[in-house]
Amino acid sequence: MDGESTFTYQPHPHVENRQVAGPPTVAETRKKLHGESRIAKLNGEIGLKLTLVVGTMWAAYAFFALALVSLPGALSSHNAVVIVAWIAQTFLQLVLLPIIIVGQNVQAAAADGRAQATFDDASAVLEEARQIQKHLLAQDEAIQKILASMAAR
User: Fold this and answer.
1) What is the tens place of the pLDDT at every residue in 32-63?
2) C-alpha triplet 33, 37, 40: angle, nearest 5°
3) Rounded Cα distance, 4 and 146, in Å
4) R_g over Cα of the chain
5) What's the pLDDT tens digit per position in 67-89?
6) pTM for this structure?
7) Which of 100, 111, 88, 107 is nearest to 54 (CA)?
8) Which residues have a Cβ under 8 Å from the Cβ of 122 and sit 6 or more positions away?
9) Closest CA relative to residue 3, chosen from 145, 153, 152, 150
10) Among 17, 44, 51, 97, which residue has the fewest nearby CB atoms (within 10 Å)?
11) Are 26 and 71 contacting, i.e. CB atoms less than 8 angstroms apart?
12) Where do the structural domains in the chain lie, given as residue ranges?
């Protein structure tokens, strides 16, 4: 060895890009899916607000009450097709829709939490790797000094 360290740390380009971009967000995803035009923003806002309103258990309770309004008519028809249609088209669709959205919102929140935790963990691992690189460089310098002093004897 010539007494010089030959290693030069080169960070991966993704590291800087990720530091600038940060973790994925709902707003950025909406832009990617729908664009940034005024209409796209309006459509996204309307869709989000409706999802927030319909995706509640209160909406499920209200839809359940609404579905019950037509239940006596379906039952009094004594027609199996009408009763099955009421169950499938009125009850299940009206009541299950908001309940499914509630479940999806819970799953999405958990996924967002996992994504943030993964981002934080990856950032911490990156910082640990940087510290290891500094430590290794310091060791390389110390070894080079020891080798130089031994060669000088």
Assistant:
1) 888 888 998 888 889 889 988 999 999 999 99
2) 50
3) 12
4) 30
5) 999 999 999 999 999 999 999 99
6) 0.60
7) 100
8) 18
9) 145
10) 17
11) no
12) 15-54
